Amino acid sequence: MSRRQGSGGRRKSARGATVMTLVVAGTFAAPAGALAQSCDRTPARATPFLTELADSGRLFRGVFARDGRELYFFKKTGPPNGEDYRIFRSRRGESGWSTPERLRLGEEASDLYPALSPDGRLLVFSSYRRAPGDTSARPNASLWLARRMGDGWDRPEPIAALAKPGYYHSQVAFTADGRLHFRRVTPDWRGRESLVSRLEGGRFSAPTESPEVARWLSWRSDLLVHGGEPVWSGEAVLLDVSRRDPATGRAGPSDIWISVRRSDGWSDPVPAGLGVNDEAAYDNFPTITPDGCGLVWVRGFSAWHRVRWPALLRELTG
Fold first, then answer.
1. Which residue from 261, 317, 303, 257 is spatially nearest to 75, judged by alpha carbons?
2. Integer Cα distance of 117 and 111 in angstroms
3. Half-sphere CA count of 301, side-chain side, radius 13 A
4. Strand partners, 303
5. Which residues are CB-contacts of 49 (< 8 A; sequence separation ≥ 6)?
6. Is the pLDDT score of 9 beyond 50?
7. Could you tell me if 126 and 143 are in contact, meaning their C-beta atoms sit under 8 angstroms apart?
8. How far, in Å, CA of 49 to CA of 53, rounded?
9. What is the DSSP letter of 15?
10. Exposed/middle/buried for 280, CB within 10 Å: 0-12, 13-18, 19+?
11. Which site among 17, 185, 258, 262 is 20 to 30 Å from 315 CA-CA?
C-alpha cells in the first residue's frame, strides 16, 4: 500500500485512501425518518468508537458482517514505510468487542481491504501474494477470494477475471445487489479506475467502469478524487477526496465528502459535516453499520470514529 495513492501512508493521500466523498440518497430500505427514530443511541456528532481496537498509525479499512457481530479490518504489521499488512477480525459479545485475531489465509502474505459478500460466504480481499501471470520482481496487490469454512476461511484463490497482473487493486467493497466495487491503479501509479463487477452464479462478470464513482474522478481541478464506492444499498457512494494546494498542486489530507442521489440525478459532492472531517488528520475508510444508524470511519490511521448516519443525511438534504 504505497503512500503515492492515499490511505496506506502517513500522508493524507496514501495508496487506497485519500480524499473521500460520500454520495448518498435514500440509502436504506426504511425511510430516513423511521431510521432516525431508532438510531438515538448513535451520537449525532463525530465521536470516538471502538476505542478498544485503536492502534496508532496502523489501522486501516474495516467492514462489518451483516449481522453486526463481526468486524473485519486490516492493520499494518511491519515497518512504518513497508507494505506488510494483515487482515484481522473482532467479534462483538456481551462485554464489547474482542481482542482482534489475525485471519489465517493460507500462506504468510501481506493482505488488505477485506470485503464480505451479501450472504457472508465469500471474503474478497487484496493481497501482495503472487498472482498467476504476475512476473514482476515484486508482486503488486491483486484480488483474491476465500470461502467460509465453518468459523474460518478456505485457502484463497486468485480472481483472474477481475485483476490485472502488475496493477494495484484496493478499496474492495460489496453492495447488497451482489456487485463488487474496487479500484485499480496502473503499475506506474499514473492512472486509476473505479470498477464494478457483478457476482452471478458464483462467478464475477468482466469489470466495467463504476457509473456511481467514475463521474467524479475528474470533477474539479482543485480537488483530487482518489475514488469511492457506493454504500451497501447502492443508493449512495463514498468517495476519497483531497484538496490541492493552489500553489503547488499537491494533494493534502483526505476527507469524506457526500453526494446525494435525487430524482434529477446526483448532487455535487460536499464535505461531510457533524465533525466527520478534521483538517489536521486523514479521515477515510468510511463504512455504514448494518443497522443503518452509523457512519464509521478511521481517523489518522489510528482510531475509529462514528456519527449518526440519518442525522448526516438530514443535514445534507435539509
1. 303
2. 17
3. 24
4. 299
5. 294, 296, 304, 305, 306
6. no
7. yes
8. 9
9. B
10. exposed
11. 17
Q: State pTM to two decimals.
A: 0.87
Q: Could you give the CA distance from residue 27 to residue 264 in angstroms, rounded to a whole number? A: 16
Residues in the chain: 318
- Angle (CA) 285-65-8 rounded to 5° is 25
User: Which residues are CB-contacts of 127 (< 8 A; sequence separation ≥ 6)?
Assistant: 105, 109, 110, 111, 112, 141, 142, 143, 144, 156
| Pairing label, strands 261-262, 265-266 | antiparallel
Of the candidates 207, 185, 183, the residue with the CA atom closest to the CA atom of residue 196? 207
Q: Give residue 70's identity as a one-letter amino acid code.
A: E
CA dihedral for 104, 110, 111, 112, sign (positive or negative): positive
Grade residue 80 by pLDDT with cuts at 50, 70 and 90: confident
The residue-averaged pLDDT of 228-248 equals 87
22 close to 238: Cβ distance less than 8 angstroms = yes
Side-chain half-sphere CA neighbours of 308 within 13 A: 17
Burial 9-35 (b: 16+ CB within 10 A, else e): bebbbbbbbbbbbbbbbbbbeeebeeb
Q: Grid coordinates representing 86?
A: 494483515
Distance between CA atoms of residues 305 and 63, nearest Å: 14
Nine-digit cell string for 87:
487482515
User: Using CA atoms, how far apart are residues 77 and 61, in angstroms rounded to an integer?
Assistant: 14
What's the pLDDT score for residue 302? 97
Confidence of residue 170 (pLDDT cuts 50, 70, 90): very high
The pLDDT-based confidence of 304 (bands split at 50, 70, 90) is very high
Mean residue pLDDT across the chain: 86
Contact between residue 126 and residue 115 where contact means Cβ atoms under 8 Å apart: no
In contact, 51 and 316? CB cutoff 8 Å: no
Say how many C-beta atoms besides its own lie within 10 A of residue 86's C-beta: 19
196: β partners: 181, 208
Q: What whole-number distance in Å separates Cα of residue 315 and Cα of residue 167?
A: 39
To the nearest 10°, report the CA torsion of 163, 269, 117, 129: 30
